[in-house]
Design goal:
- The complex is a heterodimer.
- Chain A is of the alpha/beta class.
- Helices cover about 40% and strands about 20% of the residues of chain A.
- Chain A folds into 2 domains: about 180 residues, Thiamin diphosphate (ThDP)-binding fold, Pyr/PP domains (Rossmann fold, 3-Layer(aba) Sandwich), CATH 3.40.50.970; about 130 residues, Rossmann fold, CATH 3.40.50.
- In chain A, the strands form 3 sheets. In chain A, strands 3-2-4-5-7-6-12 form a 7-stranded mixed β-sheet, with helices on both faces. Chain A has a 5-stranded mixed β-sheet with strand order 9-11-10-13-14, with helices on both faces. In chain A, strands 1-8 form a two-stranded antiparallel sheet.
- The longest helix of chain A has 15 residues.
- The radius of gyration of chain A is 19 Å and the shape is globular.
- By secondary structure, chain B is of the alpha/beta class.
- In chain B, about 40% of the residues lie in helices and about 10% in strands.
- Chain B is built from 11 helices and 7 strands.
- In chain B, the strands form 2 sheets. In chain B, strands 1-2-3-7-6 form a 5-stranded parallel β-sheet, sandwiched between helices. In chain B, strands 4-5 form a two-stranded antiparallel sheet.
- The chains are: A alpha/beta, B alpha/beta.
- The interface between A and B is large, with 54 and 48 residues.
Chain lengths: ~325, ~325
């Protein structure tokens, strides 16, 4: 069985093996293999191409940008998504503006180990896809399955634009697949993870699995919930969302992000402006609470959306 | 160091002076256009920093990388930028290298090794370091990357992270600090507490070079040594030049905060006038000949400005408004 984490390691291995332009740069990723072992054994297998960096997120991203200008395809690891804010300037002001300003693309992949795990606390749990999606010039992906973790990372390396790869730490170990696919939906296309007729849940990342569990729970109430896995939040596959809402008439957006200006807000804005006539009820959303992510497992479990809070929201949506 | 470093010759000096002169004349034109309200956006001049800046750009080779900063008009011209593209970018011509999407000093041609700075100071240091790392990974040897910064920029995290990371990998990076005494209005006394900015070199484990920023000869010699040391495998080199910014931060700034004592100090002189005097004192050219160079340059700059002013502005209806290179990723926001 291949875990989500192993899929990420294997994608990097394949990228290094097949494309001489690829190299990896980040903290502890060399002989140590990374804080989560996403680069385990790669330094030995690809000498000189898997490089430990100093503890300098700004320099890590800045160096990736310079390397990309020179034709390389760097994959850089932020040890935790939370620390990418120390490299925010290079990501949003340099990588994201380079093509528009100079016509020279910036093919870097910034891996962000994202999202909450029990005991992670305020600085090792964040979901930052919305802030990166806010800036023009970035592609932001949020793989929710082992298969997507693999194929989307490989695709990200081949994209000429900077890609923010939000891999979810909660999925690292327990999500498993028998084999990895050769082909997949391209980045920019959402996936109907579960077909339904009564309401649409639009979600991404680890919340896909909570949403699927919620949908299963609602089967007992006689409801069939359609679940859309966004896969990438930018570009956002509005067509697939609207087509689903056209079938169900009801929309619930679920995200582990904070609510203010996030992916749920964007999806609801688009459906409300472009598909208002498709809605039989006001759209709803479930997000994490608007506080820092708490450390204690009991607080954390109540901070993020779960299958039961999602199911409760879906029941309210369905009973309108 | 394996190879002997050639001394700066009369020919080197005069060639560099001519670029300094072009930079000075061009910037005087930009200031005039600014006062006439013809510039799109701000104007930020390098007056007083030409000797240092030209010395960086002129001693890099084809295939090297140069990431200039705000006051590097001279270095830009020396590295291959043109009067034409400078004017196009300041005047907002559609034909400029940035096509109206960015302006003034934020211009470059990255494919030619001439990087386009972002405004966030220090950001170009790790960028050039990464470019040099990529060259190394490709098996290319012998290229040097240089980038410029001021005294204010040395206080940024990016300066620290970039120089440190470059030092760890012993990359052939030259970081040139123009200590021009002011970061916008902030004096050195509120910028750093070490005795000299060059003291930082020891902390990073990089080569250290001090230059008299008012002396073209000293700048040329110092940069020649620093670039040579980087090219020969000596790792990053930090150059600190003492000079004085002879203008405000931008043309909007009256520079009222200038301490008159600084103007009278050793580094308060005008490097262009000193270089001109050197040429005349050495008997290389007469004052009349030097004056004729200025007139030639002024004629070229004026003619180019007249031409650029007739060029088209960018057309909003024809811009593709695409921040991503992949057409299929471009989103349409119907609500906007």
């Amino acid at each position: 069985m291949i875990t989500y984490l192993e899929a990420i390691r294997l994608a990097q291995q394949k990228a290094l093996a097949t494309d001489p332009r690829v190299f990896l740069y980040g903290q502890d990723i060399g002989s140590f293999g990374g804080a989560f072992k996403a680069t385990k054994n790669l330094a030995a297998e690809f000498p000189g191409r898997v490089l430990d960096s100093p503890l300098s997120e700004d320099a890590i991203v800045g160096m990736a940008i310079g390397a990309a200008i020179e034709g390389a395809r760097p994959i850089v690891e932020m040890q935790f998504a939370d620390f990418s804010t120390c490299g925010l300037n290079q990501i949003v002001n340099h990588a994201a503006t380079l093509f528009y300003r100079t016509s020279v693309p910036c093919p870097i992949v910034v891996r962000l180990p994202s999202g909450g795990t029990s005991g992670g606390g305020p600085f090792h749990s964040q979901n930052l896809e919305a802030i990166y999606a806010h800036w023009p010039g970035l592609v932001v992906v949020t793989p929710a399955t082992v298969e997507d973790a693999y194929t989307m990372l490989l695709e990200a390396v081949n994209i000429d634009d900077p890609v923010i790869f939000c891999e979810h730490k909660f999925l690292y170990y327990h999500l498993k697949a028998d084999a990895l696919p050769e082909n997949a939906l391209p980045i920019g296309k959402a996936r109907i993870a579960r077909a339904g007729r009564d309401a649409t849940i639009v979600t991404h990342g680890a919340m896909l699995h909570e949403s699927l569990a919620a949908a299963q729970e609602l089967v007992e109430d006689g409801y069939e919930i359609e679940v859309v896995d966004l896969r990438s939040v930018k570009p956002l596959d509005t067509d697939t969302i609207l087509a689903s809402v056209a079938r169900t008439g009801r929309l619930l957006c679920v995200s582990e992000e904070w609510p203010w200006g996030g992916v749920t807000a964007e999806v609801i804005a688009r459906v409300s402006t472009e598909g208002f006539g498709l809605l039989d009820a006001a759209p709803m959303r479930v997000n994490a609470k608007d506080t820092p992510v708490p450390y204690h497992p009991d607080l954390w479990a109540a901070h993020r959306p779960t299958a039961s809070t999602i199911a409760a929201a879906a029941r309210r949506l369905l009973h309108i | 160091m394996s190879k002997k470093i050639a001394p700066v010759t009369q020919s080197d000096f005069i060639k560099a002076y001519r670029v300094m002169l072009t930079s000075r004349v061009l910037e005087e034109k930009l200031a005039g256009l600014y006062r006439a309200g013809m510039i799109k956006g701000g104007v930020f001049l390098g007056r007083g920093q030409e000797a240092l800046s030209v010395s960086v750009g002129i001693q890099l080779r084809r295939g090297d990388i140069f990431a200039p900063l705000i006051r590097d008009q001279g270095g830009r011209l020396a590295f291959g930028d043109t009067v034409l593209d400078t004017l196009r970018t300041y005047l907002g011509s559609q034909l400029g290298s940035m096509r109206g999407r960015d302006g003034n000093i934020h211009r470059g041609r990255p494919r030619d090794g001439y990087y386009a700075m972002i405004s966030h100071l220090g950001a170009m240091i790790p960028t050039v370091a990464g470019a040099l790392l990529a060259r190394r990974l490709k098996g290319e040897q012998g290229a040097v990357g240089a980038t410029c910064i001021g005294d204010g920029g040395t206080s940024t995290g990016a300066f620290h992270e970039g120089l440190n990371a470059a030092a760890v990998d012993r990359l052939p990076l030259v970081v040139v600090v123009a200590n021009n005494r002011y970061a916008y209005s902030t004096p050195n006394s509120r910028q750093y507490a070490c005795t000299d900015l060059l003291d930082k070199a020891a902390g990073y484990g990089v080569g250290a070079h001090k230059a008299d920023g008012t002396s073209l000869l000293d700048c040329l010699q110092t940069l020649r040594h620093a670039i040579h040391a980087a090219r020969e495998g000596g790792g990053p080199q930090l150059v600190v030049a003492d000079l004085l910014r002879l203008v405000g931060h931008g043309e909007h700034d009256d520079f009222a905060y200038l301490d008159p004592e600084l103007k009278k100090s050793a580094f308060g002189s005008d490097c262009v006038l000193l270089a001109e005097k050197h040429i005349i004192d050495e008997g290389w050219h007469t004052a009349d000949e030097v004056a004729s160079w200025r007139r030639e340059t002024e004629a070229e700059v004026n003619a180019t400005a007249d031409r650029v002013r007739r060029e088209p502005s960018p057309d909003p209806s024809e811009d593709d408004w695409a921040a991503l290179s992949r057409p299929e990723y471009r989103e349409q926001y119907s609500a906007s």
